[in-house]
Amino acid sequence: MGKYTLLKKEGSARRGRFETVHGTIETPVFMNVGTLAAIKGAVSSMDLKEIRCQVELSNTYHLHLRPGDDVVKELGGLHKFMNWDRPILTDSGGFQVFSLAGMRKIKEEGVYFSSHIDGRKIFMGPEESMQIQSNLASTIAMAFDECIPNPSTREYVIGSVARTTRWLERCKTEVDRLNSLETTINRNQMLFGINQGGVYNDIRIEHAKRIVDMDLDGYAIGGLAVGETHEEMYDVIENVTPHLPHDKPIYLMGVGLPSNILEAVDRGVDFFDCVLPARNGRHGHVFTKNGKINLFNKKFELDGAPIDEGCDCPACRNYSRAYIRHLFKAKEMLAMRLCVLHNLYFYNKLMEEIRAALDGGYFKQYKKQKLEEWNGRA
Questions:
Q1: Which domains does the chain have, with CATH numbers?
Q2: Does residue 93 have a known ligand-binding role?
Q3: Staple 346 to which of 247, 287, 295, 378, CB 3.0 to 4.6 Å?
Q4: Does 217 participate in catalysis according to the annotation?
């Protein structure tokens, strides 16, 4: 279904290639988040190609509510719907359900919750999540899991992880069934399992071993970037990655800052996603080679330089900091669009540089240099 080739290693850092039915992904890769089949900030799928995006990520829960996965299926699946011919990963809705803490009940069969749009009662279990993702016809479907809040008691985490494992078995059975149907749009849909266990390394490792036995298409490390420290997060990654397969992609969910990405690549991660670059961009916070700047600051009022000198994104090629700051002050939508394009380009370019550094055998040196440059301004 998906073929992952490990091309090179430097320490634990991996340079890979993942072949899918919708094209080849060069890893490490950052997936650009288009929750509702669009990047927030008026960025189109055509823009994504221009800013060198390899994989787009959409959200199962949100698309199920609006416009409805049945509508997307009727229109030929997500690729046709949003006019994107490269890989798409859909996350399972588990994290959204986690963030609706006040509106949900977790049972063995799945989760009962209320829609954040109109309050209607919804049930989602492993089978429902897989059916929705099959209707969306994404390249990669994520298993339905419980994202554990941090901190959680050891006792709660053990019970939750056991249930996530049972749910994963149900996801696998259901994906296999759906992929065998004539009516399924993408009969090569892949399934990634998710490792959970909070910040308890022994539970994480035990869970990793369990899910590796299921021989899935890829493996994610979930339940991080939810309140633990960066050190705790790095420690979990370091402990878990050795127990995940060398011939399958490893995905760190919902992370994060450019520095987090460098540290996680160094510890063996291939796939990343985060709303952070787009969200920051919509608020005038932009990434540069010298760290992050806030374009609302008065000091940029007469600054004729681009956001980041030497950057080749559509914003930096054409506009100044002063102009973009003016657009924000005038509440023009173009301000958000330009900053989101810049930030996503910054992330996609960062991943290209990481891959080049791994190809050239100088990743450690590259990482050290980047962290120093970014921290110089921080």
A1: 3-94+123-274 (3.20.20.105), 281-377 (no CATH)
A2: yes
A3: 287
A4: no
